[in-house]
Amino acid sequence: MDLTVKPEYRQFRDEVRAFLADNLTADLREAGRLATSVFHDVERSMAWQKILHKKGWAAPHWPKKFGGTGWDVVQRAIFAEESLQADAPAMIPMGLHMCGPCIIGCGTQEQKDYYLPRILSGEDFWCQGYSEPGAGSDLASLQTFAESDGDHYIVNGTKIWTTYAHYANKIFCLVRTNKNCKPQEGITFLLIDMNTPGITVEPIIGLDLVREQNTVFFDNVRVPKANVVGKENDGWTVAKYLLMFERGGQEYAPALFHGLEKVKEIAAQEFGSFGGRLADDKTFMRKVAEVEIEVTALEFTENRIKAALGSGQSPGALASMTKILGTELSQRITELAIEAVGVYGLPQQVDAIQPGANLPFVGPEYALTAMPRYLNTRATTIYGGSNEVQRGIIAKMVLGL
Amino acid sequence: MNFDLSEEQQMLVDSIGKFLKNDYDFEVRRKLAKSELGFSRDNWKTYAELGWLSVPFSADNGGFGGSTVDLMLMHEQFGKAMVVEPLIPTLILGGRLIELLGSAQQKETLLSAVIQGELQLALASNERIARNNPAIVGTTATAAGSDYVLNGEKIVVLNGAAADKLLVTARTSGAVDAADGISVFLVDANAPGIERTGYATVDGLRAADIRFTHVKVSAANLLGTAGAALEAVETVLDEATLALCAEAVGAMDVMYKTTVEYCKTRKQFGTPIGKFQVLQFRMVDMFIAHEQSKSMIYMAALRALEGRDAARKAISAAKVQIGKSSRKVGQEAIQLHGGMGMTDELNVGYYFKRVTAFDALFGNVDFHLERYTQVA
Fold first, then answer.
1. Neighboring chain B residues of A362 at a CB cutoff of 8 Å
2. Which segments of A33-144 are extended strands (E)?
């Protein structure tokens, strides 16, 4: 047991840092710096993906033979940390982190050959059709029905909370193909072209007044059966595989440390109520320290999981633990940030932080993002399997309750 | 000990409750918040006719002579409907400061206009360097003949854009953080040298950043004695804090009840989610947080009658308790509503944003904890 970093990793970090310094334009860094959600500005994010793709770095977590980097977990973490430090726009996850791994794990050779290069290049933009108005935490109760019609399905139903559906040309869906069995057994994982007749997309405006999500309606939408990933009625297995990636594929600690650094930077600039700077206020800084200690614990929990994964084990239900810790700590950090910016969290100026907006605003720039982030981050404990559902998974799978 | 309302108090609460029920539902509020002005001048006229605008002022000044208890009861009702009309800025921060500092003539002309609904006010006191501490004032008022000249910048001034007149704290002497040397000036909001940048706030109200560049004010518009205004400014900020606490308690009341109703009807895993014990316990905690907070506004309103130090300590205690509780209740309300709580559609998100803004105003939990320990 030791914490020494192998020299080759230091070299790797230098290489990544140099690449980011050379390729991240001011415009791209602005998009990363002003992002208030895990879903960054589409235009800048896709532009950055193209640059990364050219270098072969768009999919650090994919196997090399499918266009990934072949990096190990340590290298992937270094890349993620350096990207955060440099304010790089984050990759939009639905294609690279969700649908892609799913096709790699469960797709046919034809599906791999066709879809994976298009995900890497950004030619296809995917969105995720899982939740329904009546099926949120209880995903298996979904009702969108795909009726067999020769070598096609006819799909009817409604998907909700579909992030960036208004940009997407593809959607991967869970649909019901059998109503006469246990809920989990009649579900199929289906790839659908958003340009198919019968699909309509309606916006959902968030608390932060930003349109991120949508409702997607399917009215007699014809989908070739060749678009099934895995087997018909075996979509739940595919979905669980994907959720593993959604939950376990990411590390929270680097972004949390980054968020804490930003809070400290704000505290150094804001004035205190009783003299000095906010950074001199012990009450506030103790709260920052408390969160930092919890993030440190999570960092090492994630390191332990990473080490286990390195020797070929699956994170399993532990991914639920890091999801709970990572999202709840991220909420506390955004809370510290709104406390730090004080009354300048109040002006409603979300238009001014859209990349390239160049609108006038009141207060310091760092205050612009604090409140939208606080509001947006409330969703993290709800989506991707609510934290209540995650705790249920640990109770059942780990504790055997 | 008795927490019953007097007949007059019951009438006041009933009259506000009735108006809000009939004429101020969520959709009405949402439209008003999005309108250009951000509130309704017609409603303001109605409030004047119903006598609500006279509540905080003494009978000598044409008011109802209401106490801090009346103020608290009134604003708890306003909080339930998230009323957007600028009652706190105009009546308390502006009107009450005139009542405390103004000359007989200033009181007569200005307060009657306020009570009749014809004058909008705002208190421009907070600054970037002050972080809600009214004793830290960087804005200066320099004597020039029989006039003063104001220079400085005030931030997030509630009702700053719609106000006809501004009450501005400025330093006539002393160091930037000295308790002595702070004066209040009454200036026309459109006077030369005043630059106002108005905006909506995250909770659907209106505020402005205001810059004063060589703004001339005649000595006649100095309120009270030069350099001796801090105590009065602190008093109205405390009264405003109490009113705001009461509004937050009203908002918490709606949030926990709405969440309970939602969890009774929302079904997942074949059962209403309110049947899950883990969620029941959390809603019980929301209920308890609301009851504790309500106790604190009663405590603070009553202790405030016992004098300045008692008022300061009690109001800081209330702001701490309600700051923590309202954040907790708000966050749980969103979480238990799931995705729906994250949308701009349901009222719960609006209440959540309202209580989020609440903590930042007039000093947050940390500020009032510190002040609580400082007051004997």
1. 155, 197, 199, 209
2. 126-129
